[in-house]
Design brief:
single chain; mainly alpha; about 60% helix
Length: about 180
């Protein structure tokens, strides 16, 4: 069997009268408060499903949450996702630091403190370079009024572990940026 035969209709096409009646029923205002709440809940769930599929990389960019929409945010996401940052390793390192801090040995305690300070300094330096280079790229591609909040968005995205970032990374580490956004 070919794909054309497999993708047949599930039943007869509705008549015009049936289609119009179904459309009218969808548009009809609910009579009770309970019906209205159920209808709104159904709409919210549909919107949430569209957003979740867009965040997972399967949906449309228009279905992304408002904070993630637009060409500036897409560029920021790709800019952050194309490089490794110290901050994305912060969570696993903090777990190691936490475990080591339970030992009462003075050598381990001083090592934990030094590691903690080095991690904080490395993150600050790395994030500073990230924001400076991002602003340079944004200035090259967009008008100044369009890029508001992009630095904060980049810092927040770079502190997340790459595997758990939403929207999912659309670019691999080391890949060049696209020319158009």
């Amino acid at each position: 069997m070919t794909d054309e035969q497999n993708s047949g209709k599930s039943g007869p096409t509705r008549s015009r009268k049936e289609a119009e009646a179904a459309r009218r029923a969808e548009m009809k205002r609910p009579k009770t408060r309970r019906e209205q709440a159920a209808q709104q809940r159904k709409l919210r769930m549909a919107q949430r499903d569209r957003q979740q599929s867009a965040m997972a990389g399967r949906g449309s960019a228009a279905d992304l949450p408002i904070r993630d929409q637009g060409p500036v945010r897409a560029l920021v996401r790709d800019f952050v996702d194309r490089r490794r940052t110290v901050a994305e390793f912060m969570l696993p390192l903090l777990l190691i630091i936490l475990i080591l801090s339970f030992f009462k040995n003075p050598t381990i305690t001083s090592l934990v403190f030094a590691t903690w300070m080095a991690l904080i300094i490395a993150i600050i330096i790395d994030e500073t370079f990230l924001v400076i280079s991002l602003k340079r790229e944004l200035k090259r591609r967009f008008e100044p009024g369009q890029t508001r909040g992009a630095g904060f968005y980049a810092v927040m995205r770079s502190t997340q572990v790459r595997r758990f970032r939403l929207p999912v990374p659309a670019i691999k580490v080391g890949e060049p940026l696209r020319e158009r956004y």
